[in-house]
UniProtKB/TrEMBL annotation:
GO terms, molecular function: enoyl-CoA hydratase activity
PROSITE patterns (UniProt xref): ENOYL_COA_HYDRATASE
Protein origin, superkingdom: Bacteria
Organism annotation: Pedococcus dokdonensis
Keyword annotations: Lipid metabolism, Lyase
Catalytic activity of the protein: a 4-saturated-(3S)-3-hydroxyacyl-CoA = a (3E)-enoyl-CoA + H2O; a (3S)-3-hydroxyacyl-CoA = a (2E)-enoyl-CoA + H2O
InterPro entries the UniProt entry points to: ClpP/crotonase-like_dom_sf (IPR029045), Enoyl-CoA_hyd/isom_CS (IPR018376), Enoyl-CoA_hydra/iso (IPR001753), Enoyl-CoA_hydra_C (IPR014748)
Documented EC number(s): 4.2.1.17
Leading EC class: lyase
Keyword RNA-binding: no
GO biological process: fatty acid beta-oxidation
Family, as annotated: Belongs to the enoyl-CoA hydratase/isomerase family.
Protein name according to UniProt: enoyl-CoA hydratase
């Protein structure tokens, strides 16, 4: 699928890995109203693809993943314009966050503001050594509004998130890794390759199992332990009595690679 500002590519055997490429290089992928619509449309389409097993979010710009909201566009906005744009922006970030399969951000260069929030909306964040991340919104009179106040706090804890958000500082990849804000740092320019490698590994496992594991983690994260375990049991049952489970056990005993039915 190809769309203005965003494109989707398939990789690997079976095309089970989808790559969502942010493709507005002339603006370092700044999220304009049109860009938000494109991201929302692309993630909605991917979520409905039954054969997608993992998603990589990457950039066509070698030195920028995404620099956040398009402040040049917003400079001419009235308050009503900003209110009208808000649900479109929310749909873009939630589209990434709510993907039913694992999502991996491949970050080389700058991931700032809403750009870093797109990465945080993924399950894993892989950074090149030259990556620079941050949530500088308070320095321009707003706050992170693409999930950053919630997602970063859940990743790194209150005090570290407070430092990153309140100071509006930028962080080098290694520093972000030490804080727990990103998951892996690889040589500069290789984040996409590593993210695709991880996605390919994930895509080789049971699609029913992967989807239900992610759902159990997401559904149970903000509940008490007893409720979380009940949710886990529901997802366990949905997986254990699936065709994938039967194939996985058979393949293990027959010492062969599983041919996942995906149901």
């Amino acid at each position: 699928m190809t769309a203005d500002l965003v494109r989707t590519e398939r990789h690997g055997e079976g095309g089970y890995v989808a790559e969502l490429v942010l493709d507005r290089p002339e603006a370092m992928n700044a999220v304009s109203t049109a860009m938000a619509r494109a991201i929302a449309a692309a993630t909605t389409a991917l979520a409905q693809e039954p054969d997608v097993r993992a998603v990589v979010v990457s950039s066509s710009h070698p030195k920028a993943f995404c620099v956040g909201a398009d402040l040049k566009e917003r400079n001419s906005f009235s308050d009503d314009d900003l209110r009208a744009q808000r649900p479109l922006a929310q749909a873009a970030y939630r589209g990434v966050l709510d993907l039913p399969v694992p999502a991996i951000a491949a970050v080389d260069g700058y991931a700032l503001g809403g750009g870093f929030e797109i990465a945080l909306s993924c399950d894993l964040v892989v950074c090149g050594a030259d990556a620079v991340v941050g949530l500088p919104e308070v320095s321009v009179g707003v706050i992170p509004g693409g999930g950053g106040t919630q997602l970063l706090t859940r990743r790194v804890g209150w005090s570290r998130a407070a430092q990153m958000i309140f100071t509006a500082q930028r962080y080098a990849a290694d520093d972000a890794f030490r804080l727990g804000a990103v998951d892996e740092v690889v040589p500069a320019g290789s984040a996409r390759d590593r993210a695709l490698e991880l996605a390919t590994l994930i895509a080789g496992h049971s699609p029913v199992g992967i989807r239900n594991a992610k759902a159990a983690m997401r559904e149970g994260y903000d509940t008490d332990l007893a409720s979380g375990l009940r949710l886990e049991d529901e997802r366990w049952a949905a997986t254990a009595f699936s065709a994938d489970r039967a194939e996985g056990v058979a393949a293990f005993n027959e010492k062969r690679r599983p041919a996942w039915p995906g149901r």
